[in-house]
């Protein structure tokens, strides 16, 4: 049998059974498409979560006050409630810890903020000039707070784009204008670049003022709510964390680390925790994908086995008119390859489309990986070809008369 | 020319031997129209399988045009079938949802006949089998039983085989259509000189042939010239 005849015979046989062919293709499309889409979404979600953690800044150690305790009372007011950290602590870290590349202090609070005729309630963050470096903030217009502003208790503010939109209208440029926080006027000197609304706290909906000003006029005391310490690289973070802890313990004259009035949070720990979460998520999606692959595979298997059983008489006839065993098995192999490859191709395209739709509609950076294509296609095509080819080969070995009488 | 010498076929099932054909010996000359008749279980189907190179005997010789093919391999038998034997089955066995022409061309595909020759030969075979040209492009499932059997006959003819084997060709047809099909066989035998072996259990059908071999319990009980053809 010539190759051209084989192709012709394959095509005409597939076209003669359009419903059967298209159902088989559909099974393969669903099997492959769902696996590819599911893995793409799982990995996209993982990447999205990692990206939003990274947007908080990289290689950070966050020092926060410990729980407030009253001497002689067992009542704890919860972590971060104590007022134990000061700018002096931050200065000490800058001076004494050589691994600390950048240090920024934060004092956060929520206030009602007014501008000419409008008002909003938002986070006001007192901080220092290092903050943009430590927290990955970029300035869109104007400038960020300088050391000069901090030392002179300047009444200036840098606002996030959401605050700008809320108070002055979308896309306006309010530099030089005034906002009022707690009856004190602040002059706007800069606007930050939008980072997007994802992440743990929305950095677009925020007002930055010098930390000294915040202490003096808003909180009325000398404490800070967080000290961010940035390491030069991820490798030195654990060491940095222990150095910062040792220094602060001695600063606060505490000998027992268990009684520390502050706590340190290593960003690597956050990433590790988040990775565990997304890992679980990926395993979940992977299992769903594996089950769909299995179900799809069984569907394909059933379709192929039914097809061959149905076609045993046809195989008998072909043998009776002179087809050899290899003619029959080659034709069935060609049909199986044609069906699985058509289905596989459509399935891959479908998987891509679903991933694309998720990217557009859900904002998850779903990306189709080559491995998932190979895996999904390999399993489905493998099942399809094996379960079409082997029963066909068995039928091809039958005596033509037995095959013709097959019911 | 076909010659069987001491043809024996034994089936084994569950350790028991079942002798289906016992020492059959006969000759069929080129151009004969032979009916093999017998009740079911007589061994006529097994004999037909051996004559049609679909199966091999347990012992004995089967000479097909002088060649002993009783020990041929599966592929060698397939080669004999595709070049020298045409089959007509009771159930027609056309490819479903496939055009009449493609059905008739099927043996030519396996015989590697040049593409350009296939359609003219298929059309000629269809004309000889008595099918109207209007039906050539129809799908096999759009035809009546009689028309389907004509397509099957054309498929058996298309390779210009030495031997045409028809297994109960009228079994699924009404009496009138059956008669027309038998008439077609007679014509093909008379006008084109094809050797035809007709397997049946109906004496009426066997009457169409010029020689009737009756077989019962695996042995030939009668082998006679049919001079009183009713047709």
Output the keywords.
heterodimer, A: 407 residues, alpha+beta, six-stranded mixed β-barrel, 56% helix, B: 231 residues, alpha/beta, Rossmann fold, six-stranded mixed beta sheet, 7 helices
Strand content of chain B: 25-35%
- What string, H for helix and E for strand, traces the elements of chain A in order? HHEHEEHEHEHEEEHEHEHHHHH
At the fourth level of CATH, the homologous superfamily of chain B is P-loop containing nucleotide triphosphate hydrolases
Distance from N terminus to C terminus of chain A (CA atoms, Å) equals 28 Å
Enumerate the spans of chain A where pLDDT stays under 50 for 5 or more consecutive residues: none
Structural class of chain B: alpha/beta
* Number of discrete domains of chain A: 2
Largest chain interface and its two residue counts?
A-B, 28 and 30 residues
What would the principal axes of the Cα set say about the shape of chain B? globular
Q: How are helices and strands ordered from N to C of chain B?
A: EEEHEEHEHHHEHEHEE
Low-confidence stretches of chain B: none
Roughly what is the average pLDDT of chain B, rounded to an integer? Answer: 89
The number of distinct helices of chain A, counting runs of at least 4 residues, comes to 13
Number of distinct beta strands of chain A: 10
Q: Judging by the overall fold, what is the CATH architecture of chain B?
A: 3-Layer(aba) Sandwich
Which percent band covers the strand fraction of chain A? 15-25%
Strands side by side in the biggest sheet of chain A: 2-3-8-5-7-6
Helical residues, percent of chain B? 25-40%
Distance between the termini of chain B: 26 Å
Biggest sheet of chain A, in brief? 6 strands, mixed, barrel
Compute the number of strand runs of chain B: 10
3D structure, described in words:
The complex is a heterodimer of chains A (407) and B (231). Chain A is of the alpha+beta class and 407 residues long. Chain A is 56% helix and 16% strand. Chain A contains 13 helices and ten strands. A six-stranded mixed barrel of chain A has the order 2-3-8-5-7-6. Chain B has a single domain, classed as P-loop containing nucleotide triphosphate hydrolases (Rossmann fold). In chain B, helix 3 packs across helix 4 and helix 5 runs parallel beside helix 6. Classes of the chains: A alpha+beta (407), B alpha/beta (231). At the A-B interface, helix 1, helix 10, helix 11 and helix 13 of A face helix 2 and helix 3 of B.
């Amino acid at each position: 049998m010539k190759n051209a005849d084989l192709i012709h015979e394959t095509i005409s046989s597939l076209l003669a059974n359009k419903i059967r062919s298209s159902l088989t293709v559909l099974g393969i499309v669903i099997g492959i498409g769902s696996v590819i889409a599911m893995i793409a979404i799982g990995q996209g979600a993982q990447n999205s979560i990692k990206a939003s953690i990274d947007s908080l800044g990289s290689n950070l150690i966050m020092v926060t006050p410990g729980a407030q305790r009253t001497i002689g009372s067992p009542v704890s007011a919860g972590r971060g409630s104590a007022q134990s950290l000061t700018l002096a602590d931050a200065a000490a870290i800058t001076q004494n810890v050589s691994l600390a590349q950048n240090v920024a202090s934060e004092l956060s609070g929520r206030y009602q903020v007014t501008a000419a005729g409008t008002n909003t309630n938002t986070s006001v963050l007192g901080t220092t000039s290092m903050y943009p470096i430590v927290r990955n903030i970029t300035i869109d217009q104007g400038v960020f707070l300088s050391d000069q502003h901090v030392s002179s208790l300047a009444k200036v503010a840098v606002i996030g784009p959401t605050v700008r939109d809320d108070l002055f209208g979308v896309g306006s440029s309010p530099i030089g204008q005034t906002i009022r926080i707690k009856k004190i006027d602040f002059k706007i000197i800069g606007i930050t670049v939008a980072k997007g609304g994802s992440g743990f706290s929305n950095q677009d909906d925020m007002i930055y003022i010098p930390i000294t000003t915040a202490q003096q006029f808003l909180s009325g005391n000398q404490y800070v709510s967080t000290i961010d310490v940035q390491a030069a690289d991820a490798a030195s973070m654990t060491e940095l964390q222990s150095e910062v802890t040792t220094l602060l313990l001695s600063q606060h004259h505490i000998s027992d680390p268990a009684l520390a009035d502050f706590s340190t949070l290593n960003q690597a720990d956050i990433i590790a925790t988040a990775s565990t979460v997304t890992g679980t998520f990926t395993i979940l999606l992977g299992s769903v994908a594996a089950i769909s692959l299995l179900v799809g595979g069984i569907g394909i298997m059933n379709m192929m086995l039914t097809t061959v059983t149905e076609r045993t008489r046809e195989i008998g006839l072909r043998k009776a008119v002179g087809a050899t065993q290899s003619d029959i098995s080659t034709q069935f192999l060609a049909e199986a390859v044609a069906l699985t490859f058509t289905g596989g191709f459509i399935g891959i395209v479908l998987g891509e489309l679903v991933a694309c739709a998720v990217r557009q509609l859900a904002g998850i950076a779903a990306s189709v990986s080559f491995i998932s294509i190979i895996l999904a296609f390999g399993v489905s095509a493998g099942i399809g070809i094996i379960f079409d080819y082997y029963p066909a080969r068995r039928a091809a070995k039958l005596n033509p008369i037995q095959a013709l009488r097959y019911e | 020319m076909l010659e069987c010498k001491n043809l024996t076929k034994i089936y084994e099932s569950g350790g028991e031997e079942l002798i289906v054909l016992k020492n059959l010996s006969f000759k069929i000359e080129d151009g004969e129209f032979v009916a093999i008749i017998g009740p079911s279980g007589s061994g006529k189907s097994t004999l037909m399988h051996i004559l049609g190179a679909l199966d091999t005997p347990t012992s004995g010789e089967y000479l097909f045009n002088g060649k002993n093919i009783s020990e041929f391999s599966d592929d060698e038998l397939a080669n004999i079938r595709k070049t020298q034997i045409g089959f007509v089955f009771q159930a027609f066995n056309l490819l479903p949802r496939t055009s009449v022409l493609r059905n008739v061309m099927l043996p030519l595909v396996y015989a590697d006949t040049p593409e350009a020759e296939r359609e003219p030969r298929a059309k000629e075979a269809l004309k000889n089998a008595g099918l109207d040209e209007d039906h050539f492009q129809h799908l096999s499932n759009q035809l009546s039983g009689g028309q389907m059997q004509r397509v099957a006959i054309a498929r058996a003819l298309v390779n210009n085989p030495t031997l045409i084997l028809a297994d109960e060709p009228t079994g699924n047809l009404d009496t009138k259509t059956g008669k027309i099909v038998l008439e077609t066989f007679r014509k093909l035998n008379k006008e084109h000189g094809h050797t035809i072996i007709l397997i049946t259990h109906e004496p009426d059908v066997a009457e169409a042939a010029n020689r009737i071999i009756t077989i019962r319990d695996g042995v030939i009980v009668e082998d006679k010239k049919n001079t009183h053809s009713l047709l």
